[in-house]
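Quick review question:
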């Protein structure tokens, strides 16, 4: 071995080992002889609350009825059972039992609604996603709802019940009935917190005075024929809880269909400091900001929702009884008030003729409910948060209805189609664009050609858009 090689070997034996020993390994951190693997930066991930639309929440019922439509209809049940969606209850004849359990009663002396006599209905799963991912507990494919969006977020690292929450509600009502689904427990501990954090974060603040107020208010709720007057306490609490559960990360609301107007109404009832603190943005899918023309057919001759074995007239009593149906009638803010939407041999009906239409239908309750709800978001007050307004277009969408003398009002009309997503008309879906000039927060708008009203929930491009929003830094969205 040459002298050079001998000296080089001696260098590695005497000098190099200490150098290597104390060198900082790649991907590790520390000092001395204590190194730990460096934590990789976790990408920002905003928590998400899913807000469903009309028919987008499971409902359970318990019966103690004095009468029923048929001898084979249950009048009493020992416990709650699945009412919506329960595909088995939509069979011919059995459908009449279901309609009688689902319909609401209107009390015009105080402009309220209640369940049918002897029917108690509750909304299961508040805060979780199960009852908005699947509308039928059997997970039948036809009942898939927020499933694809939820699965995509879970695969991206979300945990159900922590960063991914659901806000089901009684969609029959005319504004977000996110009242206390169990008024003796949920409302007692949740609805009356005056604090910015949930009460279970501040148990020392719970006092007898608060309990007394909560109990008194719950009694009013429990015996009120219409609980819809209790504004959003659980929804507000859910958002705050989700914020704190996720390291004070602001929440993204993801809404579908009527959930968009519900979300808007909720935000219009919150002050700006609260929205600035807790809400990052609202992503609306297929929002009917000015209603939908197809609700007129629902009121006149019923809508079988595309289930061909179901007679639309069988569903009409139930569909007519929902204040939410009146809420989703076309709004004069986004529709031409001189354009006829319903044609009959005797007369045509525009948006300005609702009173006459209900009078000709001999259904005064419909007009009273419409008057009750038309001002809820009638002026489309901007939400005061960043908005991502997404919807489909270039899908045949019912726009006008033409009845012959024989058809009006109990047979199905000839449908005149326009642009939209198959349910929401284009002029209504574009209503969110009004906010661009009315609020300082940005309003992003994107259409998806051919994305049908329900299928937009499984549209991969839409899902990727949502993922981009929730993973974007909470400084400015896309």
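Suggested answer, residue by residue:
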């Amino acid at each position: 071995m040459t002298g050079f090689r001998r000296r080089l070997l001696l260098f590695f034996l005497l000098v190099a080992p200490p150098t290597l020993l104390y060198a900082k390994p790649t991907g590790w951190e520390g000092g001395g002889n204590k190194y730990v693997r460096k934590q990789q930066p976790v990408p920002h991930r905003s928590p998400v609350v899913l807000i469903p639309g009309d028919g987008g929440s499971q409902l359970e019922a318990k019966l103690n009825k004095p009468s029923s439509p048929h001898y084979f209809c249950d009048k009493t049940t020992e416990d709650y059972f699945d009412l919506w969606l329960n595909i088995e209850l939509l069979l011919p004849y059995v459908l009449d039992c279901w309609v009688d359990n689902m319909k609401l009663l209107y009390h015009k002396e105080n402009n309220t609604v209640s369940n049918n006599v002897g029917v108690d209905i509750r909304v299961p799963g508040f805060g979780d996603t199960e009852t908005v991912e699947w509308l039928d507990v059997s997970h039948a494919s036809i009942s898939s709802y927020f499933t694809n969006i939820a699965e995509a977020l879970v695969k991206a690292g979300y945990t159900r019940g922590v960063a991914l929450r659901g806000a089901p509600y009684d969609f029959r009502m005319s504004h977000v009935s996110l009242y206390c689904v169990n008024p003796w427990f949920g409302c007692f501990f949740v609805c009356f917190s005056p604090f910015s954090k949930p009460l279970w974060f501040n148990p020392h603040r719970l006092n007898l005075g608060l309990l007394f107020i909560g109990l008194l208010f719950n009694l009013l709720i429990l015996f009120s024929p219409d609980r819809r007057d209790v504004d959003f306490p659980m929804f507000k609490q859910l958002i705050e809880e989700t914020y704190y559960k996720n390291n004070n990360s602001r929440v993204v609301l993801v809404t579908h269909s009527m959930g968009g107007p519900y979300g808007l109404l909720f935000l219009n009832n919150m002050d700006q400091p609260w929205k600035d603190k807790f809400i990052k943005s609202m992503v609306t899918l297929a929002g009917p900001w000015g209603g939908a023309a197809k609700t007129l057919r629902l009121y006149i001759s019923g809508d079988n929702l595309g289930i061909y074995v179901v007679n639309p007239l069988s569903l009409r009593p139930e569909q007519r009884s929902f204040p939410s149906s009146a809420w989703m009638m076309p709004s004069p803010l986004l529709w031409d008030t001189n354009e006829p939407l319903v044609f009959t041999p005797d007369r045509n009906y525009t948006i300005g003729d609702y009173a006459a239409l209900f009078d000709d239908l001999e259904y005064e309750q419909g007009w009273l409910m419409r008057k009750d709800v038309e001002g809820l978001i009638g002026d489309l007050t901007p939400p005061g948060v960043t908005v991502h307004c997404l919807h489909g277009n270039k899908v045949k969408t019912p726009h006008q209805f033409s009845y012959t003398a024989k058809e009006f009002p109990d047979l199905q009309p000839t449908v005149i189609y326009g642009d939209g997503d198959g349910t929401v008309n284009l002029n209504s879906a574009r209503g969110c664009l009004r906010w661009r000039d009315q609020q300082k927060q940005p309003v992003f708008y994107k259409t998806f050609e051919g994305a049908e009203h329900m299928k937009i929930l499984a549209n991969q491009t839409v899902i990727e858009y949502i993922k981009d929003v929730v993973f974007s830094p909470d400084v400015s969205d896309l």
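Why it works: DSSP finds 17 helices and 17 strands in the chain. The two ends are 66 Å apart (CA to CA).
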